[in-house]
Amino acid sequence: MSALLTPQVYLDSCATTPPAAGVLEAMASVYGEAWANPSSLHGFGLAAAERLERSRMRIAEILGCSANQVILTSGGTESIHTALLGVAADGPPGRLVISSVEHPATVAAAAQLQRRGWQVECCPVDHLGVVDLEALELLLKPPTRLLSLIWGQSEVGTLQPIEAIGRRCRAVGVLLHVDAVQVVGHQPVDFNQLPIDLLSLAGHKLQGPRGVGALLVRSDLKLKPFMGGGGQESGRRGGTEPVALVAGLAQALDLCHGRLWAHGGRDPIADLRDGLLERLLALPGVELSGPDPLDPTAPKRLPHHISLLMAAPGGKPLSGRRLVQTIWQQGYALSSGSACSSGRGANPWGMAPSPILQAMGYPDPVAASGLRISLGPWLTAGDLEGVPGAVERGKLRVLAGEPVG
Ligand SMILES: Cc1ncc(COP(=O)(O)O)c(C=O)c1O
Known about the structure:
Number of domains: 2
Strand order of the largest sheet: 2-8-7-6-5-3-4
Strand content: 5-15%
Radius of gyration: 22 Å
Shape: globular
Helix content: 25-40%
Bound molecules: pyridoxal-5'-phosphate
Number of helices: 15
CATH superfamily of the largest domain: Type I PLP-dependent aspartate aminotransferase-like (Major domain)
Order of helices and strands: EHHEHEHEHEHEEEHHHEEHEHHHEHH
Largest sheet: 7 strands, mixed
CATH topology of the largest domain: Aspartate Aminotransferase, domain 2
Distance between the termini: 11 Å
Oligomer: single chain
């Protein structure tokens, strides 16, 4: 890395997060003391099994369910597939409804179901990314059996009104899976008190390790394994459990839980976010996408999330991808959209319209001008001080056509 890259400030927590020190410690202790296969019957195995089940119980306790409702997986993508394919395996094909702003993992699982004879319908969203509740109501009619919704949208930060939607699902007998990968850790989740049947989460979005996640399942819901094997996870997911990663996930959740609890259930990062957002919106050519957290009447938004649309003085949209590069030249790591798509799909002019912004009704050039800043507890107000200046200078460099990279 070049000496120019000072300071180096990580503002891309929606892509992934740096593991917390306590998480690394918890994992190191397992690798030292409880590294064995938790299915083994000797003392080494029993020590690993004990550590695994203690971690599972802590995960369950924090998320408001019992330990046997927690299926451990490799992360968000696998949890989503386990949920959708697991529910669908029981009974004849039906209809699955998703929204037009889902993560590609959900779109991929839906496509698999479609190939197995399921009908898949996509519910539209409004200009802020909120699901159209009237359209959804019609889509909940038979033959719909399952609805899968992203609770906190990773690219534009929109929080769906999951409780209201869940109540409607319960009233009409439709199962609800919620992709809570961006939500868990940023607000309390009391699973058994929510009208939700399945909920997916991933460790690496909340300062836990990468390669571990969980699917929470309503206790009486039967789920066929999407990955067979040695019968682990009560026959719901095959594969030797990664005890150290699970301990890291439990520790990460513990840290988030402590932080939320100390702030009355609210993520304190929202204060830093709001201050930064105000300063960014004061810059010329900067517009917010998704709900405005500074407007109490607006729909809700993830507390650590800012998404912007960037334009030149005449209003011409600028390439978000090029801005990410010119801003990184100044030491600030952010993203042009979701990490899983921001490296792909650009046209020869460096413009890659985001399908999420397109679904929200933005024309292609605007849908390619997105910038995402996502925060985490490792940041201080001082770290954020230079962000608006770096964004403005990054913009001028893009306008001047300076080479990047
Ligand atoms: C909302 C959402 N769902 C699912 C995923 C996939 O999770 P993972 O990367 O852990 O497979 C992500 C990751 O970016 C996400 O943001």
